[in-house]
Each structure stands twice: as structure tokens, then as C-alpha cells.
UniProtKB/TrEMBL annotation:
Protein family: Belongs to the CACTIN family.
A Pfam family of this chain: Cactin_mid
Protein name (database record): Splicing factor Cactin
Signal peptide residue numbers: none
Length: 303
């Protein structure tokens, strides 16, 4: 039986070549683009894009297997090198313990109680189990927080994309800014949109019509910045707006939050904002998401 792929066999090789030489990060970015394409309302060859997504997943899995294989080879090579070197009695005991652990003999060797040094701390089985359970709980809680963060982020993306209209488009470009922090901070994730359309002011009404519309302009922005892991959630993130030194027609909008997040900045059109909720302004922090939505003021044209 011939397996249906959704695309002609002559295109299959071209599909495979798309992923050649791409890193895992590049493949992940491409995966997001393909999913956006499939989620869009545009008329596309869905069978082709679904097949492309399937081939991409196969390439990702293959690269991860290669990484695991390389890691195993590296570990084995290190083991051979260590075995060929003269080692101390203490190191030999540790290596023997590792070999016993690897071979499934997990129980420690029985020792004579009288040989235990007086300064050694002897703990009961109950206390030891309590400590282990406590450490496991910490790891489990950390894992739950990661899963919860991912769920919130995916929900935010889904709601934002479902709420997009024909005049909105995704906005991903950031501006590099210097950090004065000595801590290792991480870049927050985000989902931003530009609201673009026609500004039918008096001038444009006088010089254009529906059949010959004026050029599209940026009418506003919607920023959604993701901060699920703030060390102090009571501190609401903030933002600053400064002129763009290279071009006066633009400004730099910077979002600031406490650890573990670094500042993140975007270049936007330099126009006065409508700051009333009546005109769609929103600035709030809720459920780990900081939203800043605004439209630009519209000016009347005078002859």
C-alpha cells in the first residue's frame, strides 16, 4: 500500500533539503512559523504544510538522538581514559561504587559499626527518608511550576491569536540594551501585535477614496510580556519610553521587571498615545502577564 504524504514525491526531496544544516534552535523557530501558518485563516496547501511539520519533527528527533549518542561516546571515552590512569585508593573506591551502582547493586556495603569515626553523624532510616522525601518534593514543586508556566504561556498565545483581527500582525523585533546587573537574568517571552490601518483624517479624505486608499500607518500596539517566575510577584513590572537617538520618528519602549528577568525593549513609532480606557488603553499585570495596549491619538487636518 502506498503511504499518502499529502505532497507529490518530486517535492519530498525539496522538503527534506529545507532542514539540512539547521540547528535545533533554528528548527524550533521554523516550527513556530509553520504552526502560525497552519493556524492562520489564509488559503494554503494544508497537506503540504502539515507534511513539512511532520518532517521537521523527524529532523528534531534525529538531531536529539545524535546528541545523546555523542554524549554516550564522550562518557565512554572519558571512562577508558580514567581507567588507564593510576588512581588513588579513595578514587578507586568511588569508581567501584559507581560500577556497582551501574550494575544494579544499589545497596551500600555493610561496614563494622565500631569502625565508624566518633565524629561521624549517624542518622536513622526514618530521618534519612524524611530528608530524601523533602528533596524530592522540592524538585517536584519546581517541575510543577515549569509546567504551570508553560500552560499559562500557551493559553496566552492561544487567546491572543484568536483575538487578532485583519488589521493586526505579530511584532517580534527587539532592541538590544545594556544590562548593569551582575546576576544572570533571563529574557522574558512575549506576544506583541501592531495595529495597522488607514487613517481617514480630513487630509486623506480629501485626497484618497476607498478604491485608492492612503498608505497604511501604525495606529497602535498591543504588548503582552510573560513574567511567570518573578521572585517578588507583588512588584508590578513597569515601562519607560525614551526617544530613539538615531531617528526622531521612533521611540524606545522598555519593559522593566525584577529578578529573574532582564529588561526588554522595542522600537515603536513616536506618536502621542491615547491613555483613556475609552480608546482601548490597557496597562495591567495579572496571572504573570503584563499587558500594555494603546492606540495613537488622531489629529484633525486643517487647511
Amino acid at each position: 500500500m502506498i503511504r499518502r504524504t499529502g505532497i507529490h514525491s518530486s517535492v519530498e526531496d525539496e522538503v527534506s533539503k529545507i532542514f539540512e544544516g539547521k540547528s535545533l534552535n533554528a528548527l524550533e523557530m521554523l516550527r513556530e512559523q509553520i504552526i502560525q501558518k497552519l493556524d492562520s485563516q489564509a488559503k494554503i496547501d494544508r497537506a503540504y504544510w502539515e507534511r513539512l511539520l511532520q518532517k521537521l519533527k523527524e529532523n528534531v528527533a534525529r538531531q536529539k538522538l545524535c546528541q545523546i549518542h555523542s554524549l554516550i561516546l564522550s562518557i565512554n571515552a572519558t571512562k577508558i581514559k580514567v581507567e588507564s590512569l593510576p588512581i588513588s585508593r579513595n578514587m578507586k573506591e568511588k569508581f567501584d561504587q559507581y560500577e556497582a551502582y551501574k550494575n544494579g547493586r544499589y545497596s551500600p556495603a555493610l561496614i563494622d559499626f565500631d569502625s565508624v569515626p566518633q565524629v561521624a553523624k549517624v542518622v536513622s532510616e526514618t530521618y534519612d527518608k524524611k530528608v530524601i522525601d523533602s528533596e524530592r518534593s522540592k524538585i517536584f514543586e519546581k517541575f510543577k511550576n515549569v509546567v504551570k508556566s508553560e500552560e499559562i504561556y500557551e493559553r496566552m498565545l492561544q487567546e491572543a491569536r484568536e483575538g487578532m483581527n485583519e488589521h493586526e500582525m505579530e511584532f517580534k523585533d527587539t532592541v538590544n540594551i545594556e544590562s548593569n546587573s551582575s546576576m544572570t537574568l533571563k529574557k522574558p517571552r512575549f506576544f506583541n501585535r501592531i495595529n495597522a490601518g488607514f487613517d481617514w483624517n480630513k487630509y486623506n479624505q480629501a485626497h484618497y477614496d476607498v478604491d485608492n486608499p492612503p498608505p497604511k500607518v501604525v495606529l497602535g500596539y498591543k504588548f503582552s510580556i510573560f513574567y511567570p517566575d518573578l521572585l517578588d510577584p507583588s512588584k508590578t513590572p513597569s515601562y519607560t519610553l525614551k526617544p530613539y537617538p538615531v531617528d526622531k520618528d521612533f521611540s524606545i519602549l522598555t519593559f522593566n521587571a525584577s529578578a529573574p528577568y532582564e529588561d526588554i525593549a522595542f522600537k515603536i513609532v513616536n506618536r502621542e498615545w491615547e491613555t483613556s480606557s475609552k480608546y482601548g488603553f490597557r496597562g495591567k499585570f495579572q496571572d504573570g502577564i503584563f499587558q500594555l495596549w494603546f492606540h495613537f491619538k488622531r489629529y484633525r487636518y486643517r487647511r
